[in-house]
Amino acid sequence: MIGLLTVALWGCPSFAPPEPLGGIHQQQEEVHMKKPSRQEFCLAALSLIGTPYEYGGRLMVPGGYGTDCWGLVADAMHVAGDEAAATTLAKWWTQRAFDELPLFVTACPAPGDLFFYGESATRISHVTICLGSLSFGGKRGFLHLAEDYLLSASGGNSNMKTREGAFKRDARVKLFSVNSYRRPDFVAARSLRDYLY
Fold this sequence. Notes:
The chain is 25% helix and 25% strand. The chain is of the alpha+beta class. The protein has one domain (34-190): endopeptidase domain like (from Nostoc punctiforme) (endopeptidase fold (from Nostoc punctiforme), Alpha-Beta Complex). Strands 1, 2, 3, 4, 5 and 6 form a 6-stranded antiparallel beta sheet that branches. Helix 2 crosses helix 3 and helix 3 packs antiparallel against helix 4 (83-90).
């Protein structure tokens, strides 16, 4: 369905990749090996479209068949090639991630940033991945969709424990335009800048 897909950087003219820092940050990068780029992370997340919803699930663990919203973030990091970060992120849950991850510093979130939802900043219950604008290239040419998109493990809840239940409710990882996914419980966005370059 997606064919050759690139995620362009991406609908936010003020986005610029962070400048490399010396000292401690450089040492952390060497220990951390290779952080995935925002594009690699977004492409990895897109590869999970259609994965069944499983509350508390992770697709990338033995016996896993599906994922929930936070598992989607950890699984995308795993697919992007950073298993250490995936393991760290998998130990969190949506509230802890909201509390620990930094706010992004511009008014325009970058692809790979996370949107958090809930009753309040102390009661976070859902997260989505910001993808920015998408460009599709294939045999019939090139199509650029100017609208911004996000990815969500959608349609499930804490009772969703079986693959059959997920299929019955069409609960799975889905792609949404930002405009079609307006929710009144949006709280704030957070950045994965410590995990992506």
